[in-house]
Amino acid sequence: MNMHLNEAKRILVANDRGGYTVPTDRLYPFQWNWDSAFVAMGFALYDTDRAYRELERLVEGQWADGMIPHIVFHQPSDTYFPGPDVWRTSHMIPTSGITQPPVFAIALRKVFEAAGPQARSRTILLYEAALKWHRWWYSARDPEGTGLVALLHPWESGSDNSPAWDIALARVPTTTDTPVVRRDTGHVNAEMRPRDEDYSRFIHLVDTYAACRWNPAKQWQKAPFKVAEIQTTAILLKAGEDLEYLARLFGRSAEADAIAALNDRTRRALIRQWRPKLSRFVSRDLISGEDIEAATQAGFIPLLALDLEAPVADALVNEMSAWSEGLKVAFPTTRPGIVGWEPKRYWRGPAWAIINWLLIDGLKRNRYTDAAEDLRRSTIAAIESEGFAEYFDPVTGEGCGGLGFSWTAAAYLWLIST
Ligand code: GLC
Hints:
- The protein is mainly α.
- The protein has 16 helices and ten strands.
- The protein has helices spanning 3-14, 33-43, 48-59, 84-87, 104-115, 120-141, 166-170, 184-187, 196-211, 216-222, 230-249, 253-271, 310-324, 353-365, 369-386, 406-416; strands at residues 31-32, 71-72, 150-151, 227-228, 274-275, 280-281, 283-285, 291-292, 391-392, 399-400.
- A four-stranded antiparallel β-sheet has the order 3-4-7-8, covered by helices on one side. A two-stranded antiparallel ribbon has the order 1-2. The chain has a two-stranded antiparallel sheet with strand order 5-6.
- β9 (391-392) and β10 form a beta hairpin.
- Alpha-D-glucopyranose binds at residues 23, 28, 32, 34-35, 158, 160.
């Protein structure tokens, strides 16, 4: 019996708060959006009922306009900042006011495939929630119909303090109406976390959108941070493919056609973000109109949703190997060695099991099976030697951030079974 497998399941039990899973105790004491989608895919491997519960509990936080928020505050806790009093949203169960990468429909398809046809009606309800959310993405975050969706807050990317935001975030004032009372640095080493200055800008954005009463059109107008982002767009496209698949299966052909049309537009837009001179894809800063050239993992995530032509895919995968050379654990969230690379600071260098999960799926889709297998093995080895850490220092392999992390446990379950 694999003891790590038992440990992974034990972590998911320990982080259960009643049908939903917190990312880790204390540091993240609520339900997080994309964390739950990954966790549901982990549960799908051995407990489909629990997998459905995870998604159903997340949907309890869905807003009337379709948005699924990045945090659902099912129960109060004073170990996290910013809590509901800072967000000032009006949903019945308190939630944050921003969203996170739409992994949900990818998870839903996997959970349904594991559960089988008897789970049809349970799946249809979640399918409808996902469809509403995807429509929200296109209307609220791509009002001009470009095919790329925009983020109005770095936290929406799930890669909170990535160097990709440095230029765009520097324009956001550090003034806040809300006192910034960080709790994260009481749980983990401050050297591994975003800086105070980042936090005041993060909260400035929250204040700005709360003042718009979280109305998407007003926020779009007032946003001092607006990035058409490729990691999120690629995830939306892959999730859109899975949503279309479910729509066809359930005989919802008009909905399936509508989703397919959105997917087509997004596919074309995403391909246009390829930059041969960088050998990766880039996001666009919608305030300055410029490409975001910061060297981060996001540039490779389109592998997940596109069937790339051979020269593009070869260049992309070669670039990935160049970034990974000599590392103990790939894949680094920032290119090693460049200015701004910090191997222990959160999204500025470390390797994350769930990012590897997306990359492995993308490499397989594009038939780079050896590269996918190398990444799979190195991720498993890192977890087996260091435990279910939030993320890993790619140079030393050290487990960093929070421990007993749910999505690392879910990723492990998935990695050993593929
Ligand atoms: C951090 C991460 C985000 C994740 C959350 C909970 O905010 O940047 O991606 O969802 O923690 O794990």
